[in-house]
Amino acid sequence: MKAKKGVLLINLGTPDSPKVPDVRRYLDEFLMDGRVIDIGVIQRNLLVRGIIVPFRSPKTAKLYNEIWDKEKGSPLLYISKEQVDLLREELGDEYHIELAMRYQNPSIEQALEKLRVAMVDSVRIIPLFPQYASATTGSVIEKVMRLMSGWPAFPEISIVNQFYDNELMIEAFADNGRLKRPETFDHVLFSFHGLPVRQLKNVDSSGNHDCNASNCRQEITSANKFCYLAQCHATARLIAQKLDINPEKYTVCFQSRLGKEPWIQPYTSDTLEKLAHEGAKRLLVFSPAFVADCIETLYEISVEYGQEFNKLGGEHVELVPSLNTHSKWIEALKLMVLGRQPMPAATPLGEAIINK
Predict the structure, then answer these.
(1) Helix locations, the chain, DSSP H
(2) pLDDT in tens, 136-160
(3) Burial class (CB in 10 A: 0-12, 13-18, 19+), 99
(4) Do domains 5-17+68-159 and 167-319 have the same CATH topology?
(5) Residue 257 has pLDDT above 90, yes or no
(6) Pair 64, 23: CB distance under 8 Å
(7) Is 293 helix (H, G, I), strand (E, B) or coil?
(8) pLDDT digits (tens, 9 = 90+) for 56-85
(9) Of 79, 69, 95, which is closest to residue 11 (Cα–Cα)?
(10) Any residues with CB less than 8 A from the CB of 38 and at least 6 apart, and which?
(11) What does the alpha-carbon distance between residue 230 and residue 211 come to, in Å, rounded to a whole number?
């Protein structure tokens, strides 16, 4: 009997419920990850378990309650399951596909065990973060490698570590944005999840990466190819180009900072204030760090930033939906599993058939 090919899709994670104890467990696992808060374990333990988790859990639980679907549960989880179901339809019975979350459930341990028992002859691992960061993709890869290190027999293993410029992904974001008619808004924001500035220094072999010197906001080069900020700007440029958005009409900014130390700037909150001061009334917001809508998009952008902008004198903040179950995104996932690149639109049919 022919062995199946294994596929493991991994997203960030979600509490099992919006109840405070479940949110506390989720935040504890998430924030105790040494790649997320990269300080000494004793300091991290005091900070996370002594200050952040006890005070943040009840507040975060209230936010999850706002977006939680009574029947389906966590948006991030049920949307991810829908993506997997659609991918199974595309790939067929030859592929054994499992979904995992880096934090909480379904766990990476459970998913890997299912693949091991199935005796797949290969495992294709896809962390569902378009832009590479040590705190996301790096953490996933480290966890998978640690868990698989105990396997007595290894299948062929391959990893997709970034896809910030994937053509089909860019087209899917652009399709969703086009439905919102960007030309009717005063300004467009590309709001990405934030990172401490210090984490950007370690993306090259020198350990002293400088985004300004490496032109990270303007281009991708051999010097900045693993820089999260550079990849975020590249994703935003590609989506803006698809939609013919003038560079002066959009801003790349960063949300969800934690603590008092410097994180990547400009912060989304500061950008809202600046645009309101300049007289902007209607803002369109993309969140291209996420492939499925979640608390950061459905609440932080749609609700919190909307309320913040209104208080500043603005009128409306509109969220562009994430990739979710867009057909081009499912096709992008399929091609990533197969190790193929999307065909350029202008490629002649005969050449496309040969390349397949």
Answers:
(1) 20-31, 41-47, 53-67, 75-91, 108-117, 139-148, 167-178, 228-242, 268-277, 295, 306-311, 327-338, 349-355
(2) 999 999 999 999 999 999 999 999 9
(3) buried
(4) yes
(5) no
(6) yes
(7) coil
(8) 999 999 999 999 999 999 999 999 999 999
(9) 79
(10) 134, 135, 196, 198, 199
(11) 8
Contact 108, 144 (CB under 8 A): yes
Secondary structure (DSSP) of 295-348 = HIIIIIIIIIIHHHHHHTT--EEEEPP-STT-HHHHHHHHHHHHT-PPPPTT--
The token duo for 205 is 């072999």
Q: Where are the domains of the chain?
A: 5-17+68-159, 167-319
pLDDT value for 343: 63
Q: Assess contact for 356 and 338: CB atoms under 8 A.
A: no
Q: What is the pTM of this model?
A: 0.92
Cα separation, 323 vs 294, in Å, equals: 11
Query: What kind of fold does domain 167-319 have according to CATH?
Result: Rossmann fold (3.40.50)
Q: Label the pairing between strands 122-127 and 156-159.
A: parallel
Q: At 291, phi and psi to the nearest 5? A: -95, -5
Distance, CA of 148 to CA of 198 (rounded, Å)? 30
pLDDT for 3:
59
Q: Helix 75-91 crosses helix 327-338 at what angle (to 10 degrees)?
A: 60
For residues 238 and 308, give the distance between their C-alpha atoms in angstroms, rounded to a whole number: 28
* Domain over 5-17+68-159 is classified CATH 1.20.1330.10: no
